[in-house]
């Protein structure tokens, strides 16, 4: 799967302050479809896919400056300690959410947190008529087969979500969002707590650079059934 950052550079987390998240996704999908219709687009995408397989391609690509997990000056060790109390606590604080998002980018799995954020935005819709366009954009971006930022969902969850697309409700993505939340909580979150940048924040030092991970495979919720994550950070 191609790097979603290259497919959708418009979709950064901070942009949601200025535009609703689903509108950014809708605009990106339209632009990508237009590009795909141009002569030679398929060949270019194939060459890009081959390039992305090179281990040195991503070195420093989307991390910004070395060690840029979060701005160390704005995060105290006391605040960083709270992030280790629970996954919900981490996501409830903007600095924690930003730091975790940057960490997922080093693992090329940021589609999970982007989907979770999109679902949070969807549930904040002020009127019923907003549900359909938002739901359609989220479904096409994250859930349907071969979606540009497809998240890993079991067949039943994907089927239930798909069936509710005709008349979406506020709860349409609840099951899918809960599944992705649990996957991040049991897989990515423990690794985040053991990462060098996070441990540096705990000790009040500038965050060390997180090592880049090559995505080997996508996990499913069944991988973690009956397993308690190790949340030890020391």
From TrEMBL:
Protein name according to UniProt: RGS18 protein
SUPFAM superfamilies attached to this UniProt entry: Regulator of G-protein signaling, RGS
InterPro entries tied to this protein: RGS, RGS_sf, RGS_subdom1/3, RGS_subdomain_2
Keyword Chaperone: no
Organism per entry: Vidua macroura
Record Pfam families: RGS
GO biological process: negative regulation of signal transduction
Highest taxon in the source lineage: Eukaryota
């Amino acid at each position: 799967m191609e790097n979603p950052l290259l497919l959708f550079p418009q979709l950064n987390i901070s942009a949601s302050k200025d535009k609703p998240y689903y509108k950014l996704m809708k605009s990106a999908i339209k632009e990508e479809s237009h590009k795909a219709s141009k002569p030679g687009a398929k060949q270019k995408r194939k060459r890009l896919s081959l390039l992305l397989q090179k281990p040195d391609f991503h070195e420093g690509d989307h991390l910004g400056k070395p060690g840029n997990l979060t701005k160390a000056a704005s995060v105290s060790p006391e605040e960083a300690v709270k992030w280790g109390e629970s996954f919900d606590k981490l996501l409830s604080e903007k600095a924690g959410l930003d730091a975790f998002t940057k960490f997922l980018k080093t693992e090329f799995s940021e589609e999970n947190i982007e989907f979770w954020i999109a679902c949070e935005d969807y549930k904040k819709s002020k009127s019923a008529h907003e549900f359909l366009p938002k739901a359609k954009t989220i479904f096409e971006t994250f859930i349907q087969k071969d979606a540009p930022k497809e998240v890993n969902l079991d067949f039943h969850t994907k089927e239930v979500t798909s069936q509710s697309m005709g008349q979406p409700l506020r709860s349409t993505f609840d099951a899918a969002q809960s599944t992705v939340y649990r996957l991040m909580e049991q897989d990515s979150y423990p690794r985040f707590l053991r990462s060098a940048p996070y441990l540096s924040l705990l000790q009040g030092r500038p965050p060390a650079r997180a090592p880049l991970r090559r995505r080997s495979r996508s996990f499913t919720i069944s991988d973690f059934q009956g397993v308690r994550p190790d949340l030890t950070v020391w």
